[in-house]
User: Fold this.
Amino acid sequence: MEEHAAAAGCEGVRSAAMDAGSAVAEAISSLRGLLMCLSLYDAALQNEEEFSLYDALHFNSMQGYVLHRAVAKMEEACLILEDVSGPEIPGKADLAESR
Assistant:
């Protein structure tokens, strides 16, 4: 019975770690998208292309969306890890304070 409970606990931790990993992967993907947008914007500026106000606003709103999504996914990963970790994890209190 105890072995079954321990196995179930390990499976829960493994599942949570996989969920956290997925959230981090999505955050990284969002940040890569942001880097691509910044590269395109920089290339256009280097070529001295003119941007309309609409283009600039669109770029800024897209940049804000991507950053917001990346932060949300990292927070999701942190919450998942906090749920499965105990208070003995170093830096956990610092993470909670930074929010």
In short: The two ends are 40 Å apart (CA to CA). The chain has a mean pLDDT of 74. The helical segments are 2-46, 53-84, 92-98. Residues 2-83 form one domain.
